[in-house]
Design goal:
164 residues; mainly alpha; 76% helix; metal-binding; Dbl Homology Domain, Chain A
Length: 164
C-alpha cells in the first residue's frame, strides 16, 4: 500500500509540478484548459500527500529502533477509515468522480492539442525528455490516476488476508 501510494503521489506531482507548470508558464495555458486536462489535480495531490504522510508516520511509530528500518505496522485500519469515509472520503469521491468522469474528454483534448498546436507539441516533447518524467506521458498519467481508485479494494483485501 505504501509503495504504490508513493508512486501515485509521484505521478500526481509530475502532473502538477512538471506538466501543468510548463503549460502554464511556457504556453500561458489558462486555468480552464488546464482543468480540462487535469481536473481536480491539486485536490488529489493534497488528499494523497496527506494519506501518505499518515502512513509514513505510522511506520515511524512502529520502528523497533530509531536507526533501523525494521518495523511491523500493527494498526492501519484507522488511517484507511479516515481516508475513505467521512469528510475526507467525500472529498475523495468528489475529486475522483470529477477526474474519472472527464477522462475521455481530457485525453481527447490532449490529443487534439498535440495534433494541432505546434507550441504545445514542442513543450510536451521537451517535458517528455526530462529524466524525472521517465516515460510518464500525459495520457499515461491520466490513465494511472483514473485507475488508482480501483486498486484500493485489492490492496485492502490483501492487508486483511495477511493480518489477524
Amino acid at each position: 500500500l505504501m509503495q504504490t501510494e508513493m508512486h501515485h503521489v509521484r505521478t500526481l506531482k509530475i502532473m502538477l509540478r512538471v506538466y501543468v507548470r510548463e503549460l502554464k508558464e511556457n504556453l500561458q495555458m489558462d486555468s480552464g484548459k488546464l482543468d480540462c486536462l487535469f481536473p481536480r489535480l491539486e485536490n488529489l495531490l493534497e488528499l494523497h500527500t496527506h494519506f501518505l504522510s499518515r502512513l509514513k508516520e505510522r511506520r515511524r511509530e512502529n520502528l523497533t529502533s530509531p536507526n533501523e528500518r525494521n518495523y511491523s505496522i500493527n494498526r492501519v485500519a484507522d488511517i484507511l477509515i479516515t481516508q475513505f469515509s467521512g469528510e475526507v472520503g467525500g472529498r475523495m469521491k468528489e475529486s475522483y468522480g470529477d477526474f474519472c468522469s472527464h477522462h475521455t474528454e481530457a485525453v481527447s483534448y490532449y490529443k487534439e492539442q498535440l495534433h494541432n498546436n505546434k507550441k504545445f507539441q514542442n513543450i510536451i516533447r521537451k517535458v517528455n525528455n526530462l529524466s524525472i518524467v521517465r516515460r510518464l506521458g500525459v495520457s499515461e498519467c491520466i490513465l494511472l490516476v483514473t485507475q488508482r481508485i480501483m486498486k484500493y479494494p485489492v490492496l485492502v483485501e490483501r492487508i486483511i488476508l495477511n493480518t489477524e
